[in-house]
């Protein structure tokens, strides 16, 4: 009966309340950091009140959780993660991936269309994604579809994929490493943009292009040396791809033939010429944004140990001077946002005992650590909490068209991370890691600052005090 149901535990949440307040001295809102309280009801933020305006009578009526000095911030929106499900769930999978996300303060994750099997390139393959994710996700999950040669020049194929609910498209300008996800050229991209314009959805691009004329293929060099790998993917690969890509983005300007479409360059590593080209295009009014990832902000080529393929990714991690320039670009606002590019595999394919950088799987495992990594490595540059919220929540939600997310503000989903920036921890064997293969993460062994206390997804406390909610009640985010 009704009263019985009301007293039943909500297994989607560690908290048995639908209506409650959370308080702290540091709430990151679009209008600055306030001391006060956030009221959550029915999964939505219904009020945000400064301490001085918060009357006692409100306080006594409902459940209040006082987080003290801990920071209340919008949950992170990771627009770039590979959960490899269905088909390669031994690499990651929706259950472990979203558990790691929740433990890391990520409340929304947009899954990449490749590394699962099959790739998400049609309504049928999107349906397989939806079935694999349903009832198995702890946080909200949306999907990018793939722009590949097969569908790029076939507008009804693209239209049906977009109609099926992908939040936008992703393409590669170089081989992706996945057979059923071939690369696109600028003609494909131009066609894709003209279709995306009607939907006002973005195209995300892996911008590297193979330049076989000048590079060494590394075969004469030691494959266990990181510098050998670095030489195989020089900055000219990024610069060349970005130059080609930006030759078709003028159509995205206001009044252009692809107005409404948007190009987002994923995981920028080269902070020199490639970034200059992006700044120039933005200056001309092209609808373009760019992300980089925590691993490019945390690591340098110089420090990567011989044979340590945990650090292999593409584009590669470059030298310390480049990392410095990436941070400057973050602080100046020239790089718009961050994403994880969590791209795990099964440990065998990292070839850790061989240490062959040329043959190992390229991809970094970081999903659970992106918030403390951003904070820990950014402190010396003076990163603020507001910047972290902008890079990880506000701008990524906007990119993905998720207008109910990305801020602690009235009417937004109650997607919230509560964390303690000052609390340090060692990412050692004793630290609980929830993604599937902790051993391949290059972040292991680091000391980090910034501990996630609680994560709320639409008002459900999905992670708190080291525990996860027992049921996986995240929502699928399909565009309509
Ligand atoms: N296929 C795939 O995930 N590739 C990713 N890995 C990586 O390091 N960069 C990528 O684009
Ligand atoms: Zn990529
Ligand atoms: Zn990726």
Q: What keyword list fits this structure?
A:
about 475 residues; alpha/beta; 6-stranded parallel β-sheet; about 20% strand; globular; binds 1-[(4S)-2,5-dioxoimidazolidin-4-yl]urea; binds zinc ion; Metal_Hydrolase; Allantoinase; signal; allantoinase activity
What is the compact description of this entry?
The protein is of the alpha/beta class and 480 residues long. The protein contains 14 helices and 19 strands. The chain is 28% helix and 22% strand.
Give a written overview of the molecule.
This protein has 480 residues and is of the alpha/beta class. 28% of the residues lie in helices and 22% in strands. The strands form three sheets. Strands 1, 2, 3, 4, 5, 15, 16, 17 and 18 form a nine-stranded mixed beta sheet that branches. A six-stranded parallel beta sheet has the order 9-10-11-12-13-14. Strand 17 and strand 18 form a beta hairpin. It is globular, with a radius of gyration of 22 Å. Bound molecules: 1-[(4S)-2,5-dioxoimidazolidin-4-yl]urea and zinc ion (ZN) (2 copies). 1-[(4S)-2,5-dioxoimidazolidin-4-yl]urea binds next to loops.
